[in-house]
Amino acid sequence: QVVLVESGGGLVQAGASLRLSCAASGRTFDKSIIGWFRQVPGKEREFVASTRWIGPHSYYADYADSVKGRFTCSRDAMNKINLTINKLKPEDTAVYYCAADSRVGLATNPRDYQYWGRGTQVTVSS
Fold it and tell me: Which one-letter DSSP state was computed for residue 32?
């Protein structure tokens, strides 16, 4: 059984930084994509960033245009990724979900991902 567990969310002030982590278990994702989405009530789940396999021990990070420059997505190990958010803004407030899929290549649509975590709440106060 595949399980994804997010951690690191919380209440922070605008301008601060936060690091989210996601650990996957139940299978290996060495050549797979693991990414982050976020969602606010009443809106669709939005792609944030992902790391995808591009070669032996090599992963490439992709980002939504709206977060480029402030978000950094990195893969610590084949089954763990992090998302560092700098200069947090109130509009970053959302539930952040980790997602994974066995596909190779970029995927930004939530329907492209088979496995999901339960999410971690990030709330940014102004």
Answer: S
> How far is 38 from 86, CA to CA, in rounded Å?
16
Distance CA 19, CA 6 (A): 11
Give the pair of three-digit tokens for residue 45: 């789940």
Residue 69: burial class (beta carbons within 10 Å; 0-12, 13-18, 19+):
exposed
Q: Is 42 exposed, middle or buried (0-12, 13-18, 19+ CB in 10 A)?
A: exposed
Length of the chain measured in residues: 126
Residue 80 CA to residue 96 CA, distance in Å, equals 15
What CA–CA distances, in Å, run from 92 to 13, 20, 102? 11, 13, 28
Tell me the C-alpha distance between 86 and 45, whole Å: 21
Query: What tens digit of pLDDT does each residue of 12-70 get?
Result: 999 999 999 999 999 988 888 999 999 999 999 999 999 999 988 899 999 999 999 99
Residue type, 24: A
